[in-house]
Specification:
The complex is a heterodimer of chains A (271) and B (473).
Chain A (H helix, E strand, L loop, with lengths): L1 H17 L13 E2 L4 H7 L2 E2 L2 E7 L5 H14 L4 E5 L6 H6 L7 E5 L4 H14 L4 E5 L5 H5 L3 H11 L5 E6 L8 E13 L6 E4 L4 E4 L13 H6 L16 E10 L8 E6 L2
Parallel strand pairs in A: 3-7, 3-8, 4-5, 4-6, 6-7
Antiparallel strand pairs in A: 1-2, 8-11, 9-10, 11-12
Helix pairs in contact in A: 5-7
Chain B lengths: L1 E6 L9 H13 L5 E5 L2 E5 L3 H5 L10 H23 L3 E6 L2 H10 L3 E3 L5 H5 L16 H13 L5 H5 L3 H20 L16 E10 L2 H21 L3 E11 L4 E12 L2 H14 L6 E11 L16 H15 L4 E6 L8 E4 L11 H9 L7 E15 L2 E7 L9 E15 L7 E12 L6 E9 L4 E8 L1
Parallel strand pairs in B: 4-5
Antiparallel strand pairs in B: 1-3, 1-4, 2-3, 6-9, 7-8, 7-9, 10-11, 12-13, 12-17, 13-14, 14-15, 15-16, 16-17
Helix pairs in contact in B: 1-3, 9-10, 10-11
Classes of the chains: A alpha/beta (271), B alpha+beta (473).
């Protein structure tokens, strides 16, 4: 308490000479781009504009899901978006399912060339006017992302600040260091398989077990193997609902550090 | 002072009429910007002051100022005849104080005729009334025959006969048309000229003294031409949406480029950058000896922005950025994706990214899409699909190993979960028929991070080979 009073007295004494330099500046409200996922928007409000947001995670962790969701919301709100696709892996069918308006999306395919991807991102940020610019490094090997020089990230941070653009970076490991205003780690908590179709291989694949849904009485086990096991049965045609249904995703906020321990969880669907 | 040019050798009909008429107009424009085309073979131009440019210089020793002026006008008329002869046709030239007197004189007298102001009736008075051009007096075709018959019945044969009739009597019998016609016969008409607009030429060209091999010196030439071109466009309150560049090369060949712009522009810096990117993408094979730039004139873009409209890139900046991106990664790898109307997997085409031509989808549908958002699982597709060695048991995949993997995803290991097959096929009527059995699998990759990799694999029915199509992410 004494120290606080002494600090206040010193500040008051210096105010006449240096002005109100000790007063805490009120930060302007941060503009955001919604992610399109309620569970994340409830926690983060969205991706900050004028800053870098990094999303890192392992393969199949759900990074592209988050990207598509953000692109869908941004393009549906008439924002102009750009995607720098380093490895040329952007799937249009899943983007269309996610309701991304491709007319408002500038897609730059870099065919695996990391340097071109960074140059293209720099051109887009310097051009200005984009609501969301995404740099997809998800398929770049971790050893290569570690070698990205920090000056690129500083350059991006400088180019994007004080602009309405949100720069989204998808990486396998965290590599933007202190340049990102928001860092999210994303993990997959397991896929959701259709219960009537899933099967488990046990004992090194020697035994095949077909699992049926307990609550589902409709016997549409139209698997080839089952047909091989009991060829006398007639099976209805297989539908797309028999394939993978989705996955459960967990997101941890790494930067800025918060006191909220519980990660955000959401479930994705495939069809 | 008005001069009229009558082309004696210009055909009155046939395919060469337009050519001859345009030659006559071009000839007139070389002497004055105020030109009227009265008929196919006749033009009249305002030459007030032009005798100072084209006429002979009047010396201080001239006898009289009036005679000196006549000499200058004669010299101007002689210059017109000389240039017409160079173009290959013979003309009569008459100079008078009003355009109609000049026209009548040019049609009636050979060579050069100069009529002093106030002396029109003296020189035109003996002309036959049949030479009177009724269209110059603005008389309708229906009345021409009636008036000419009337004049003939009155026993009038020459311009003078008609000019000397009392004005009140003519007005009483022939009306205002007769009055105008009489003024024409007197050589005193005072009508305004109907001017020919000079053709809007938005083309600039330059013949180079020395062939240019490098881009940098050529950029200075292009900049100069574009500045002139854009100044022309700006002076006419126009812009351009298509720019054409023609380069004549030292090896006697020509290269033509065309740049189509999504929005009309008239900024020379932007156009210069786009031209340079275009030339850099396909450099000329030889040194450049001549440069021609032409622009398609269109109305400039009118944009109304609003408070609630999201920010979009500036069209000029966006065009330059797109050109730079095209130079960086290739023109076919930048743009908006468009899914093709087919069931073939990963069928799409790249189209030009154009914000101005986007379809206006209904606001209601957009809002409902935002409100009913669903988290759709993402998929990353491999282009081309990666070949894989897949072990199967009773037709089911049990183990996978992907060949030639260079990315972060090393797919090698036991398949712990699989779902399928989902058989698709199509285009059986074409040579590139496709048929495949798709499987969604989860692979435990012992070499990489913890967690399963979810991916989609398929067996090509034609070749009985396995491929990894992509990864769920």
């Amino acid at each position: 308490m004494k120290s606080a009073v002494a600090k206040k007295e010193i500040e008051l004494a210096l105010t006449d000479r240096f002005g109100a330099i000790f007063q805490r500046h009120q930060k302007p409200p941060v503009e955001i781009v919604p992610t399109g996922i309620d569970e994340i928007d409830a926690r983060l409000n969205g991706f900050p504009r004028g800053a870098i947001t990094e999303i890192h995670g392992t393969t199949s962790s759900g990074r592209t899901t988050l990207l598509l969701s953000a692109l869908a919301v941004a393009t549906l709100q008439d924002e102009t978006c750009a995607l720098v696709d380093t490895s040329d892996t952007f799937d249009l069918s899943s983007a269309a399912n996610a309701r991304v308006d491709c007319d408002r999306l500038l897609w730059v395919r870099c065919s695996g060339n990391l340097e071109r991807a960074f140059k293209a991102t720099d051109l887009l940020l310097q051009s200005g006017g984009f609501g969301l610019v995404a740099l997809n490094l998800a398929d770049v090997a971790a050893k290569h992302t570690r070698r990205i020089i920090t000056s690129w990230w500083f350059r991006f941070r400088r180019a994007v600040e004080n602009t309405p653009t949100a720069l989204l970076v998808l990486t396998p490991i965290s590599c933007t260091r202190s340049c990102a205003a928001l860092v999210l780690e994303i993990k997959n908590e397991g896929p959701v398989w259709p219960s009537t179709m899933s099967f488990v291989l046990e004992n090194n694949g020697a035994k095949l077990t077909i699992e049926e849904s307990k609550g589902d009485s409709t016997p549409h086990l139209s698997l080839v193997t089952e047909a091989a096991q009991s060829p006398e049965r007639s099976f209805p045609p297989l539908t797309h609902a028999n394939l993978l249904q989705g996955s459960r995703v967990r997101i941890n906020q790494e930067r800025p550090i918060t006191w909220i321990v519980d990660p955000a969880r959401f479930r994705t669907r495939l069809h | 002072m008005f001069a009229s040019i009558y082309g004696r050798t210009i055909p009155k009909s046939g395919v060469q009429v337009d050519n001859g008429a345009s030659l006559l107009i071009d000839l007139a424009f070389t002497f004055s910007p105020l030109v009227e085309q009265t008929a196919i073979d006749t033009v009249v131009l305002d030459v007030a002051g032009q005798d100072l440019l084209f006429g002979s210089s009047a010396s201080s020793s001239s006898v009289a100022v009036g005679n000196a002026e006549i000499d200058s006008v004669r010299a101007l008329a002689g210059e017109i005849i000389r240039r017409a002869a160079q173009s290959g046709f013979k003309v009569n030239v008459a100079v008078a104080a009003n355009p109609d007197a000049a026209i009548n004189a040019a049609r009636s007298f050979q060579g050069v005729t100069v009529i002093r102001a106030g002396k029109e009736s003296l020189q035109l008075g003996d002309l036959s009334l049949k030479l009177l051009d009724y269209s110059l007096a603005g008389i309708e075709k229906e009345r021409v025959e009636e008036i000419s018959e009337t004049l003939e019945l009155w026993g009038l044969r020459t311009f003078n006969d008609f000019a000397e009739l009392p004005l009140a009597g003519v007005a009483q019998r022939l009306g205002q048309a007769g009055v105008r016609l009489q003024k024409l016969a007197q050589g005193k008409s005072d009508r305004q000229m109907v001017l020919v607009q000079p053709p809007l030429g938005f083309e600039q060209s330059l013949e180079l003294e020395h062939p240019l091999e490098e881009l940098e010196p050529l950029s200075f030439i292009l900049s100069r031409l574009l500045n002139q071109l854009c100044a022309n466009l700006h002076s006419h309150a126009l812009a351009t949406n298509e720019l054409r560049l023609c380069l004549k090369l030292e090896d006697k060949t020509e290269q033509e480029r065309a740049i189509t712009l999504p929005v009309p522009m008239h900024n020379p810096k932007t156009l210069l950058r786009l031209l340079l990117f275009e030339i850099e993408s396909q450099p000329p094979q030889a040194a450049v000896v001549s440069v021609t730039i032409s622009a398609e004139p269109v109305k400039p873009r009118v944009a109304q922005t609003g408070l609630f409209i999201p920010l979009a890139p500036e069209p000029e900046k966006l065009e330059v950025t797109l050109a730079r991106l095209a130079k960086l990664v290739g023109a076919d790898k930048v743009g908006s994706p468009e899914i093709l109307d087919t069931h073939r997997p990963d069928a799409f085409r790249m189209k030009r990214f154009n914000l101005s031509s986007r379809q206006n989808k209904s606001r209601r549908n957009r809002q409902s899409a935002i409100d009913n958002r669903q988290c759709v699982m993402g998929f990353r597709i491999f282009r081309p699909p990666r070949g894989a060695d897949v072990q199967t048991m009773l037709g089911r995949p049990t183990r996978i190993s992907v060949r030639n993997v260079s990315s972060s995803c090393l797919l090698r290991g036991k398949i712990i979960c699989a779902s399928g097959p989902w058989r698709t096929s199509g285009d059986w009527w074409r040579s590139d028929v496709w048929a495949r059995d798709e499987w969604d699998i989860a692979v435990t990759d012992s070499t990489s991070k913890p967690g399963d990799v979810l991916c989609r694999i398929y067996r090509d029915v034609q070749s009985d080979r396995w491929f990894v199509e992509g990864i769920y992410d």
